[in-house]
Design brief:
With 398 residues, this protein is of the alpha/beta class. It has two domains: 129 residues, Aspartate Aminotransferase, domain 1 (Alpha-Beta Complex); 229 residues, 3-Layer(aba) Sandwich (Aspartate Aminotransferase, domain 2), CATH 3.40.640.10. The chain has twelve helices and 15 strands. The structure holds pyridoxal-5'-phosphate.
Protein backbone atom coordinates (compact mmCIF):
# COMPACT_ATOMS: atom_id res chain seq x y z
CA UNK A 1 0.00 0.00 0.00
CA UNK A 2 1.43 3.37 -0.96
CA UNK A 3 0.95 6.59 0.95
CA UNK A 4 -1.49 8.94 -0.78
CA UNK A 5 0.04 12.13 -2.13
CA UNK A 6 -2.22 14.07 0.25
CA UNK A 7 -1.07 13.17 3.78
CA UNK A 8 -3.93 10.97 4.98
CA UNK A 9 -4.76 12.78 8.22
CA UNK A 10 -8.41 13.31 7.30
CA UNK A 11 -11.05 10.60 6.81
CA UNK A 12 -12.23 12.26 3.61
CA UNK A 13 -15.68 11.33 2.36
CA UNK A 14 -16.98 10.86 -1.17
CA UNK A 15 -18.32 14.38 -1.55
CA UNK A 16 -15.83 16.03 -3.89
CA UNK A 17 -17.01 19.59 -4.44
CA UNK A 18 -15.91 21.42 -7.53
CA UNK A 19 -18.16 24.48 -7.42
CA UNK A 20 -20.18 26.55 -4.98
CA UNK A 21 -23.28 28.68 -5.54
CA UNK A 22 -24.51 30.65 -2.55
CA UNK A 23 -25.64 28.09 0.03
CA UNK A 24 -25.10 25.12 -2.30
CA UNK A 25 -22.09 22.96 -3.14
CA UNK A 26 -21.87 21.07 -6.42
CA UNK A 27 -19.94 17.81 -6.64
CA UNK A 28 -17.85 16.25 -9.41
CA UNK A 29 -20.84 14.49 -10.93
CA UNK A 30 -23.01 17.58 -10.77
CA UNK A 31 -24.85 16.53 -7.61
CA UNK A 32 -26.02 19.37 -5.33
CA UNK A 33 -25.65 19.62 -1.56
CA UNK A 34 -27.32 22.11 0.75
CA UNK A 35 -24.25 23.43 2.53
CA UNK A 36 -25.12 23.80 6.21
CA UNK A 37 -21.49 23.15 7.11
CA UNK A 38 -20.16 26.25 5.29
CA UNK A 39 -16.57 25.03 5.32
CA UNK A 40 -16.87 24.63 9.11
CA UNK A 41 -18.35 28.06 9.79
CA UNK A 42 -16.04 29.76 7.30
CA UNK A 43 -18.18 30.61 4.26
CA UNK A 44 -20.27 33.11 6.18
CA UNK A 45 -21.40 34.88 3.01
CA UNK A 46 -21.85 31.65 1.08
CA UNK A 47 -20.00 30.57 -2.05
CA UNK A 48 -19.19 32.92 -4.90
CA UNK A 49 -20.38 36.09 -3.18
CA UNK A 50 -19.98 38.72 -5.92
CA UNK A 51 -18.44 41.42 -3.70
CA UNK A 52 -15.85 38.98 -2.35
CA UNK A 53 -14.90 37.44 -5.69
CA UNK A 54 -14.63 40.82 -7.40
CA UNK A 55 -12.50 42.16 -4.56
CA UNK A 56 -10.13 39.19 -4.77
CA UNK A 57 -9.77 39.51 -8.55
CA UNK A 58 -9.17 43.26 -8.40
CA UNK A 59 -6.73 43.15 -5.49
CA UNK A 60 -4.82 40.19 -6.97
CA UNK A 61 -4.28 42.25 -10.10
CA UNK A 62 -3.28 45.32 -8.08
CA UNK A 63 -1.05 44.02 -5.26
CA UNK A 64 -1.11 40.64 -3.57
CA UNK A 65 1.82 40.44 -1.21
CA UNK A 66 4.61 42.71 -0.02
CA UNK A 67 5.80 41.26 3.36
CA UNK A 68 5.61 43.17 6.61
CA UNK A 69 8.84 45.05 5.87
CA UNK A 70 6.75 47.86 4.39
CA UNK A 71 3.86 50.01 5.43
CA UNK A 72 0.40 48.55 5.01
CA UNK A 73 -2.28 51.06 4.04
CA UNK A 74 -4.90 48.32 3.66
CA UNK A 75 -3.87 46.62 6.91
CA UNK A 76 -4.19 49.90 8.79
CA UNK A 77 -7.62 50.44 7.30
CA UNK A 78 -8.94 46.99 8.22
CA UNK A 79 -7.41 47.07 11.70
CA UNK A 80 -8.96 50.50 12.31
CA UNK A 81 -12.35 49.27 11.16
CA UNK A 82 -12.17 46.27 13.51
CA UNK A 83 -11.00 48.50 16.36
CA UNK A 84 -13.88 50.91 15.70
CA UNK A 85 -16.42 48.09 16.09
CA UNK A 86 -14.95 46.11 18.99
CA UNK A 87 -13.37 46.30 22.45
CA UNK A 88 -9.93 46.11 20.84
CA UNK A 89 -7.31 48.84 20.47
CA UNK A 90 -4.95 46.82 18.31
CA UNK A 91 -4.97 43.86 15.91
CA UNK A 92 -2.38 41.33 14.66
CA UNK A 93 -3.34 39.56 11.43
CA UNK A 94 -2.59 35.89 10.82
CA UNK A 95 -3.35 33.29 8.14
CA UNK A 96 -5.33 30.93 10.35
CA UNK A 97 -7.12 30.49 13.63
CA UNK A 98 -4.34 28.61 15.35
CA UNK A 99 -1.83 31.37 14.59
CA UNK A 100 -4.18 33.82 16.28
CA UNK A 101 -4.19 31.48 19.30
CA UNK A 102 -0.38 31.44 19.30
CA UNK A 103 -0.36 35.23 19.21
CA UNK A 104 -2.88 35.36 22.08
CA UNK A 105 -0.82 33.01 24.26
CA UNK A 106 2.34 35.01 23.55
CA UNK A 107 0.56 38.32 24.20
CA UNK A 108 -0.68 37.07 27.59
CA UNK A 109 2.73 35.80 28.64
CA UNK A 110 4.45 39.01 27.53
CA UNK A 111 1.93 41.12 29.44
CA UNK A 112 2.86 39.57 32.75
CA UNK A 113 6.55 39.51 31.79
CA UNK A 114 6.70 43.24 31.16
CA UNK A 115 4.72 43.79 34.35
CA UNK A 116 7.57 42.11 36.22
CA UNK A 117 5.65 38.88 36.85
CA UNK A 118 7.23 36.36 34.47
CA UNK A 119 6.11 33.53 36.75
CA UNK A 120 2.52 34.27 35.74
CA UNK A 121 2.67 32.22 32.56
CA UNK A 122 -0.12 29.66 32.98
CA UNK A 123 -3.47 29.77 31.23
CA UNK A 124 -6.51 28.06 32.63
CA UNK A 125 -8.30 26.34 29.76
CA UNK A 126 -11.33 24.11 29.58
CA UNK A 127 -12.24 20.47 28.97
CA UNK A 128 -13.38 19.67 25.45
CA UNK A 129 -11.84 22.92 24.22
CA UNK A 130 -10.61 23.24 20.67
CA UNK A 131 -8.05 25.91 19.86
CA UNK A 132 -6.36 24.42 16.79
CA UNK A 133 -3.51 22.05 16.01
CA UNK A 134 -0.20 23.75 16.77
CA UNK A 135 1.83 22.40 19.69
CA UNK A 136 0.70 25.43 21.71
CA UNK A 137 -2.96 24.92 20.86
CA UNK A 138 -3.01 21.17 21.54
CA UNK A 139 -1.29 21.90 24.83
CA UNK A 140 -4.25 24.16 25.63
CA UNK A 141 -6.80 21.34 25.41
CA UNK A 142 -7.17 18.15 27.42
CA UNK A 143 -8.51 16.15 24.46
CA UNK A 144 -6.34 13.01 24.09
CA UNK A 145 -7.27 12.52 20.42
CA UNK A 146 -5.36 15.70 19.60
CA UNK A 147 -2.49 15.26 22.04
CA UNK A 148 -1.56 11.57 21.83
CA UNK A 149 1.89 10.98 20.40
CA UNK A 150 2.90 14.64 20.38
CA UNK A 151 4.36 14.87 23.87
CA UNK A 152 6.17 16.60 25.39
CA UNK A 153 3.66 19.40 25.02
CA UNK A 154 4.04 23.00 26.10
CA UNK A 155 3.88 23.49 29.87
CA UNK A 156 1.67 26.18 31.36
CA UNK A 157 -1.94 25.06 31.00
CA UNK A 158 -4.47 23.92 33.60
CA UNK A 159 -7.72 22.25 32.52
CA UNK A 160 -11.04 22.82 34.23
CA UNK A 161 -14.57 21.74 33.33
CA UNK A 162 -16.33 24.16 30.95
CA UNK A 163 -19.08 26.20 32.62
CA UNK A 164 -17.67 25.31 36.06
CA UNK A 165 -16.97 28.76 37.48
CA UNK A 166 -16.08 27.48 40.94
CA UNK A 167 -13.55 25.07 39.47
CA UNK A 168 -12.06 27.84 37.34
CA UNK A 169 -11.67 30.16 40.33
CA UNK A 170 -10.17 27.38 42.43
CA UNK A 171 -7.53 26.77 39.75
CA UNK A 172 -6.12 30.30 40.02
CA UNK A 173 -2.69 30.41 41.64
CA UNK A 174 0.38 32.65 41.70
CA UNK A 175 1.45 31.44 38.25
CA UNK A 176 -1.87 32.07 36.49
CA UNK A 177 -1.79 34.50 33.56
CA UNK A 178 -5.47 34.26 32.67
CA UNK A 179 -8.20 32.19 31.07
CA UNK A 180 -8.39 30.96 27.49
CA UNK A 181 -11.96 30.00 26.64
CA UNK A 182 -14.37 29.66 23.73
CA UNK A 183 -17.41 31.83 24.44
CA UNK A 184 -19.43 29.09 22.74
CA UNK A 185 -17.58 25.78 22.44
CA UNK A 186 -17.73 24.56 18.83
CA UNK A 187 -15.82 21.36 18.12
CA UNK A 188 -16.34 20.18 21.69
CA UNK A 189 -20.13 19.98 21.40
CA UNK A 190 -21.69 23.41 20.70
CA UNK A 191 -22.07 24.35 24.35
CA UNK A 192 -22.63 28.04 25.05
CA UNK A 193 -20.93 29.46 28.11
CA UNK A 194 -23.51 30.22 30.78
CA UNK A 195 -23.91 33.90 31.68
CA UNK A 196 -22.66 33.22 35.24
CA UNK A 197 -19.60 31.44 33.88
CA UNK A 198 -18.53 34.02 31.29
CA UNK A 199 -19.26 37.05 33.46
CA UNK A 200 -17.68 35.26 36.45
CA UNK A 201 -14.43 34.74 34.53
CA UNK A 202 -14.41 38.43 33.61
CA UNK A 203 -14.90 39.42 37.23
CA UNK A 204 -12.14 37.07 38.41
CA UNK A 205 -9.76 38.57 35.85
CA UNK A 206 -10.51 42.07 37.11
CA UNK A 207 -10.02 41.05 40.72
CA UNK A 208 -6.80 39.09 40.23
CA UNK A 209 -5.13 41.09 37.45
CA UNK A 210 -5.57 38.23 34.97
CA UNK A 211 -6.30 38.33 31.25
CA UNK A 212 -9.50 37.01 29.71
CA UNK A 213 -8.74 35.52 26.29
CA UNK A 214 -11.84 34.62 24.33
CA UNK A 215 -11.48 32.24 21.40
CA UNK A 216 -14.20 33.43 19.02
CA UNK A 217 -12.68 31.80 15.97
CA UNK A 218 -15.89 29.83 15.41
CA UNK A 219 -18.53 31.77 17.36
CA UNK A 220 -17.41 35.25 16.26
CA UNK A 221 -18.00 37.30 13.14
CA UNK A 222 -21.76 37.27 13.20
CA UNK A 223 -22.24 33.53 13.72
CA UNK A 224 -24.37 33.88 16.87
CA UNK A 225 -26.40 36.85 15.67
CA UNK A 226 -24.08 39.49 17.09
CA UNK A 227 -20.74 40.63 15.69
CA UNK A 228 -19.10 38.72 18.56
CA UNK A 229 -20.59 36.16 20.92
CA UNK A 230 -19.42 37.94 24.07
CA UNK A 231 -21.84 40.77 23.25
CA UNK A 232 -24.60 38.42 24.45
CA UNK A 233 -22.97 38.47 27.88
CA UNK A 234 -22.37 42.20 28.31
CA UNK A 235 -18.64 41.75 28.87
CA UNK A 236 -15.50 42.29 26.82
CA UNK A 237 -12.28 40.26 26.78
CA UNK A 238 -8.72 41.56 27.04
CA UNK A 239 -7.57 39.47 24.10
CA UNK A 240 -9.66 37.71 21.45
CA UNK A 241 -8.88 35.34 18.61
CA UNK A 242 -10.85 35.49 15.37
CA UNK A 243 -10.64 33.56 12.09
CA UNK A 244 -13.06 31.37 10.07
CA UNK A 245 -15.78 33.82 8.96
CA UNK A 246 -13.38 36.80 8.87
CA UNK A 247 -12.17 35.89 5.36
CA UNK A 248 -15.15 33.92 4.00
CA UNK A 249 -12.69 31.23 2.89
CA UNK A 250 -9.63 33.32 2.19
CA UNK A 251 -7.06 32.28 4.85
CA UNK A 252 -7.21 35.03 7.45
CA UNK A 253 -7.23 35.27 11.21
CA UNK A 254 -6.60 37.94 13.81
CA UNK A 255 -5.62 38.43 17.40
CA UNK A 256 -7.34 41.46 18.92
CA UNK A 257 -6.28 43.06 22.19
CA UNK A 258 -6.70 46.08 24.38
CA UNK A 259 -3.79 48.51 24.54
CA UNK A 260 -3.08 47.36 28.11
CA UNK A 261 -3.09 43.63 27.32
CA UNK A 262 -0.90 44.14 24.25
CA UNK A 263 1.66 46.35 25.94
CA UNK A 264 4.38 43.68 25.77
CA UNK A 265 4.00 43.15 22.03
CA UNK A 266 6.56 45.66 20.82
CA UNK A 267 8.96 45.72 17.83
CA UNK A 268 10.48 42.36 17.18
CA UNK A 269 8.37 40.27 19.55
CA UNK A 270 6.19 38.62 16.92
CA UNK A 271 5.71 38.38 13.18
CA UNK A 272 4.47 36.56 10.11
CA UNK A 273 5.59 36.57 6.49
CA UNK A 274 2.14 36.34 4.91
CA UNK A 275 0.04 37.63 7.82
CA UNK A 276 -2.03 40.65 6.83
CA UNK A 277 -0.90 40.79 3.22
CA UNK A 278 -2.76 43.19 0.88
CA UNK A 279 -4.92 40.47 -0.67
CA UNK A 280 -6.02 39.19 2.75
CA UNK A 281 -6.70 42.73 3.95
CA UNK A 282 -8.83 43.53 0.91
CA UNK A 283 -10.92 40.40 1.52
CA UNK A 284 -11.23 41.25 5.20
CA UNK A 285 -12.56 44.69 4.23
CA UNK A 286 -14.99 43.21 1.71
CA UNK A 287 -16.41 40.81 4.31
CA UNK A 288 -16.98 43.73 6.68
CA UNK A 289 -18.55 45.82 3.89
CA UNK A 290 -21.30 43.20 3.85
CA UNK A 291 -21.50 42.28 7.54
CA UNK A 292 -21.49 45.82 8.89
CA UNK A 293 -24.37 46.86 6.69
CA UNK A 294 -27.42 47.86 8.71
CA UNK A 295 -29.44 44.90 9.86
CA UNK A 296 -27.01 42.11 8.89
CA UNK A 297 -26.56 40.72 12.41
CA UNK A 298 -30.25 41.23 13.24
CA UNK A 299 -31.07 39.14 10.20
CA UNK A 300 -28.69 36.40 11.35
CA UNK A 301 -30.39 36.44 14.74
CA UNK A 302 -33.81 36.20 13.05
CA UNK A 303 -32.73 33.28 10.84
CA UNK A 304 -31.19 31.60 13.89
CA UNK A 305 -34.46 31.95 15.81
CA UNK A 306 -36.43 30.52 12.89
CA UNK A 307 -34.05 27.63 12.33
CA UNK A 308 -34.09 26.78 16.02
CA UNK A 309 -37.89 27.03 16.17
CA UNK A 310 -38.14 24.71 13.17
CA UNK A 311 -35.82 22.23 14.89
CA UNK A 312 -37.81 22.46 18.12
CA UNK A 313 -40.94 21.64 16.20
CA UNK A 314 -39.29 18.70 14.48
CA UNK A 315 -37.59 17.12 17.50
CA UNK A 316 -40.66 15.56 19.17
CA UNK A 317 -41.42 13.72 15.91
CA UNK A 318 -38.06 11.95 16.18
CA UNK A 319 -37.92 11.47 19.90
CA UNK A 320 -35.83 8.31 19.68
CA UNK A 321 -33.06 10.15 17.78
CA UNK A 322 -32.80 13.79 18.85
CA UNK A 323 -32.03 14.83 22.39
CA UNK A 324 -31.56 18.60 22.63
CA UNK A 325 -30.65 21.71 20.66
CA UNK A 326 -27.54 23.61 21.60
CA UNK A 327 -25.79 26.80 20.55
CA UNK A 328 -26.76 30.32 19.57
CA UNK A 329 -27.84 32.09 16.40
CA UNK A 330 -26.70 30.17 13.32
CA UNK A 331 -24.24 28.15 15.39
CA UNK A 332 -26.57 25.31 16.29
CA UNK A 333 -26.03 21.74 17.35
CA UNK A 334 -28.39 18.84 17.89
CA UNK A 335 -27.41 16.18 20.38
CA UNK A 336 -28.28 12.64 19.35
CA UNK A 337 -29.54 9.87 21.55
CA UNK A 338 -27.68 6.60 21.55
CA UNK A 339 -27.32 4.32 19.72
CA UNK A 340 -27.25 7.05 17.03
CA UNK A 341 -23.73 8.33 16.43
CA UNK A 342 -23.20 11.91 15.22
CA UNK A 343 -20.50 11.01 12.69
CA UNK A 344 -22.75 8.30 11.13
CA UNK A 345 -25.77 10.56 11.07
CA UNK A 346 -23.80 13.34 9.38
CA UNK A 347 -22.67 10.81 6.73
CA UNK A 348 -26.27 9.63 6.29
CA UNK A 349 -27.58 13.17 5.77
CA UNK A 350 -24.77 13.87 3.35
CA UNK A 351 -24.91 10.67 1.29
CA UNK A 352 -28.64 10.05 1.23
CA UNK A 353 -30.23 13.48 1.64
CA UNK A 354 -27.71 15.93 0.18
CA UNK A 355 -27.47 17.92 3.41
CA UNK A 356 -24.05 18.91 4.73
CA UNK A 357 -23.53 19.27 8.50
CA UNK A 358 -20.50 18.69 10.75
CA UNK A 359 -19.98 16.24 13.61
CA UNK A 360 -18.82 17.58 16.98
CA UNK A 361 -18.01 16.13 20.41
CA UNK A 362 -20.60 14.82 22.88
CA UNK A 363 -22.55 13.13 20.05
CA UNK A 364 -23.69 16.45 18.64
CA UNK A 365 -23.92 17.37 14.97
CA UNK A 366 -23.34 20.97 14.01
CA UNK A 367 -25.56 23.05 11.78
CA UNK A 368 -23.46 25.96 10.53
CA UNK A 369 -25.11 27.46 7.44
CA UNK A 370 -23.85 30.50 5.60
CA UNK A 371 -25.11 33.57 7.47
CA UNK A 372 -26.92 34.71 4.33
CA UNK A 373 -29.53 31.93 4.29
CA UNK A 374 -33.19 32.80 3.85
CA UNK A 375 -36.45 31.03 4.72
CA UNK A 376 -36.24 28.79 1.68
CA UNK A 377 -32.92 27.31 2.86
CA UNK A 378 -34.34 26.76 6.33
CA UNK A 379 -37.35 24.93 4.88
CA UNK A 380 -35.07 22.87 2.64
CA UNK A 381 -32.83 21.97 5.59
CA UNK A 382 -35.72 20.92 7.80
CA UNK A 383 -37.26 18.82 5.02
CA UNK A 384 -33.98 17.00 4.39
CA UNK A 385 -33.26 16.61 8.09
CA UNK A 386 -36.73 15.17 8.80
CA UNK A 387 -36.42 12.78 5.89
CA UNK A 388 -32.96 11.83 7.14
CA UNK A 389 -34.27 11.22 10.64
CA UNK A 390 -37.03 8.97 9.26
CA UNK A 391 -34.70 6.93 7.09
CA UNK A 392 -31.85 6.64 9.59
CA UNK A 393 -31.44 3.27 11.23
CA UNK A 394 -28.56 3.55 13.65
CA UNK A 395 -28.14 -0.17 14.25
CA UNK A 396 -28.23 -1.36 10.66
CA UNK A 397 -26.89 1.68 8.74
CA UNK A 398 -23.45 0.64 7.42
C1 LIG B 1 -11.33 26.26 13.94
C2 LIG B 1 -10.96 26.70 15.28
C3 LIG B 1 -9.62 26.96 15.65
C4 LIG B 1 -8.45 26.70 14.73
O1 LIG B 1 -8.51 27.44 13.55
P1 LIG B 1 -7.59 27.01 12.29
O2 LIG B 1 -7.86 28.06 11.26
O3 LIG B 1 -8.04 25.64 11.88
O4 LIG B 1 -6.18 27.00 12.74
C5 LIG B 1 -9.39 27.44 16.92
N1 LIG B 1 -10.39 27.65 17.79
C6 LIG B 1 -11.68 27.41 17.48
C7 LIG B 1 -12.75 27.71 18.47
C8 LIG B 1 -12.00 26.92 16.23
O5 LIG B 1 -13.28 26.65 15.94
Amino acid sequence: MSTPALMPVYPRCDVRPVRGEGCWLIGERGERYLDFAAGIAVNALGHGHPHITRTIADQAATLMHTSNLYGSPLGEKLAQRIVDHTFADTVFFTNSGVEAIECAIKTARRYHYVNGNPQRHKLITFKNAFHGRSIGAISATDQPKMRDGFEPLLPGFDYVKFNDLEGALAAIDGETAGFLVETVQGEGGMTAGTPEFITGLRKACDEHGLLLILDEIQCGYGRTGKFFAHEHYGITPDIMTVAKGIGNGFPLGACLATEEAAKGMVFGTHGSTYGGNPLAMAVGMAVLDVMLEDGFFERVEQMGDWLRAAFEQMIPNHDHLFDEIRGKGLMLGIKLKEPAVARDFVAHLRDNHGLLTVAAGENVFRVLPPLVIDESHIAECVERLSAGARSYAPLTDD
